[in-house]
Amino acid sequence: MTEIAHKNAFVTGAASGIGLALTKALVARGAHVMMADMNAEGLAAARAEVGEAHTESVVCDVSDAGSVQNAAQATIDAFGKVHLLFNNAGVSLAGRPGQIDLRDWQWITDINLMGVVHGVETFLPLIAAHDEGGHIVNTASMAGHVTAPGMGPYFATKFAVTGYSEALRIELKKSGIGVSCLCPTWVKSNIHNTSDNSPAAEVHREKFKQSDAYKAVRSLVENGMSPDVYAELCMKAIEANRLHVFNDPEARQALIDRHEANLADYDACLADLDL
Ligand SMILES: NC(=O)c1ccc[n+]([C@@H]2O[C@H](COP(=O)([O-])OP(=O)(O)OC[C@H]3O[C@@H](n4cnc5c(N)ncnc54)[C@H](O)[C@@H]3O)[C@@H](O)[C@H]2O)c1
Questions:
Q1: Residue 88 gets which letter from DSSP?
Q2: What is the CATH number of the domain that holds 75?
Q3: Rounded distance, CA 205 to CA 75, Å?
Q4: Is residue 210 in some structural domain?
């Protein structure tokens, strides 16, 4: 059981979508939140929306380890201690294999995977130091469990985050620090536009925005679950120290299919070994 009331939290990607909703849900439960985001203007507007009484904010680029370390120092300066870490900032990137600019691959990996790593490596010693327990929450996606064509880099980084989160949970089992991994499908946010900021966006942005794939994703995100509803689900899962936080009633079969495909390969390989 993880307590949220009166605890101090650090939330990345707090200017928009799920990060903003997590911040609101944390404050509603009595936590203090350091809101972190690389979008300074959006961050100021988001903090004004949540209210300044229980929040602080810091501009932070999670892909830059030094920026995360500075944000951690700002959190300690503001709150004294930190208990709850939300590595939530993330971006999306579409594209077919053989056609994706390597600068874009690096960009999404630095944010979606290394951003989480920077958060854990920076904050875990700070959480462990006060001996009051805590919780690490990494935002992956249902795209960290099942795949589809057209977004290989996103799936690759999100599978990495689910695997890393599972490993962290085992590592921290006896430490009093819980680990959860957010695995949402289609939550209303700005995620479908984040690749506008990728290094090679100038080359592909216009064509991409005209594609049927982009229009389909935009429609699914725009009609997705309310981030406030998803954030409330997350609070309950964190309090219960549940690993995965799913929200998609239609994804169960996809999880089963992937599991069964893995087992079919496993059985076939062991049969080839005559075991
Ligand atoms: N919305 C969905 O349907 C959905 C589904 C599955 C997973 N997710 C994940 O949820 C997380 C939050 O995304 P969202 O849907 O709220 O999108 P969003 O675009 O509304 O919010 C993302 C926030 O992250 C910030 N950000 C981007 N790069 C950053 C960086 N380098 N450093 C600091 N901040 C940065 C952006 O400025 C933005 O405020 C992401 O990790 C995303 O992959 C979203």
A1: -
A2: 3.40.50.720
A3: 36
A4: yes
Per-residue b or e along 210-249, where b marks 16 or more CB atoms closer than 10 Å to that residue's CB: eeeebeebeeebeebbebbebbbbbbebbbeebebbbbee
Check residue 204 and give its pLDDT: 78
- Over the chain (275 residues), the average pLDDT of each successive run of 10 is 94 98 98 98 98 97 98 98 98 92 97 99 98 97 96 97 98 96 98 92 82 88 97 98 97 97 98 90
> What pLDDT was estimated at residue 267?
97
Q: Is the CB of 88 under 6 A from ligand 1?
A: yes
How far apart are the CA of 257 and the centre of ligand 1, in A? 28
The answer as to whether 54 is a domain residue is yes
Which residue in the block uniquely carries the two structure tokens 């087992």?
Answer: 263
Cα gap 52→55, rounded to integer Å: 5
DSSP 213-241: HHHHHHHHHHTSB-HHHHHHHHHHHHHTT
Rounded to the nearest 10 degrees, the angle between the axes of helix 17-28 and helix 227-239 is: 60
Closest CA to 62 of 36, 83, 44: 36
Q: Is residue 79 one of the residues assigned to a domain?
A: yes
Q: How far is the CA of 63 from the centre of ligand 1 (A)?
A: 13
Domain that holds residue 37: 8-250
Assigned domain for 134 exists: yes
Supply the pLDDT for residue 275.
76
For ligand 1, pick from 10, 12, 18, 222 the residue to mutate: most ligand atoms within 8 Å of CB: 18
How many domains is the chain built from?
1
Amino acid at 5: A
Residue 156's pLDDT is what? 98
The DSSP secondary-structure symbol of 193 reads G
* Assigned token pair, 130: 């006060």
Residue 150, beta-bridge partner list: none
